[in-house]
Amino acid sequence: MKKGLRRLLRFLTVMIALTISVSSQGAVTAAQQLNSAVAKWLRGDITATFVYSGSAGKGTGTLKSSGTKFALQSSVTSVWYNGSNMWTYSPSTKETTLVKPSASEVSESNPVAVLSGSAAGFSASFAKKQTAGTSTIIMTPKSNKSGLKRVVVVLQASTLKPLKIDVTSADGSRNVLTIKSIATGQKHSAATFIYPSGKYPKVKVVDLR
């Protein structure tokens, strides 16, 4: 085989490989990839550990969820949402507030809830800049009433495991959740998502419903 032909074939092989790599994301839309990640990692009952930073401060925490219900424990705040009522305990003020939250308030308290409802309220697109081994998706709310400006989701490319959720609210505040671990296939009791008043007997509950 002539040297020039070998070089041409080698060049074409490299170009085909690069084309497959670049277009692999394009074969699946961002919304489809996000839905696949939700179906694989965020359906049913889950327990996740995370590191967070943003308007609420910095720290670590644990999240337990089942559908729209969740219980979040961290050094800055603890939140329980049973699908109707949401209790938020603040260690700094020694008070717990009780509200019937809007969808945006639930999303601000539990960024994972944004992903679960992604198909309904957001449009999704792949970020122009991607990091090897991950897939970054930008979610933009379809309505200005959502209370959110933008959500950036980083998935592990090979498994679609959520690695980071970066939420920017309409007021400009930002919270970043870096997920360290996710355990699926567990079963949480209904009590998991209700404020454990017995654990905080001297804490005042402010009912704002």
Q: What topology emerges from the helices and strands here?
A:
Elements: H1 3-26, H2 30-42, E1 45-54, E2 57-66, E3 69-74, E4 78-81, E5 86-90, E6 95-99, H3 103-109, H4 111-116, H5 118-121, E7 122-126, E8 134-141, E9 148-156, E10 162-169, E11 174-186, E12 204-207
Parallel strand pairs: 6-12
Antiparallel strand pairs: 1-2, 1-11, 2-3, 3-4, 4-5, 5-6, 7-8, 8-9, 9-10, 10-11
Backbone structural class: alpha+beta
- Proportion of strand residues: 35-45%
Lateral strand order in the biggest sheet: 7-8-9-10-11-1-2-3-4-5-6-12
Mean pLDDT level: 80
| Biggest pleated-sheet summary | 12 strands, mixed
Helices and strands, in order, run as HHEEEEEEHHHEEEEEE
Low-confidence stretches: 1-26
The number of strands is 12
Helix content: 25-40%
**Spatial separation of the terminal alpha carbons:** 80 Å
Query: What is the rounded Rg?
Result: 21 Å
- Total number of helices: 5
> Oligomeric status of the shown chains?
single chain
Overall 3D shape = globular
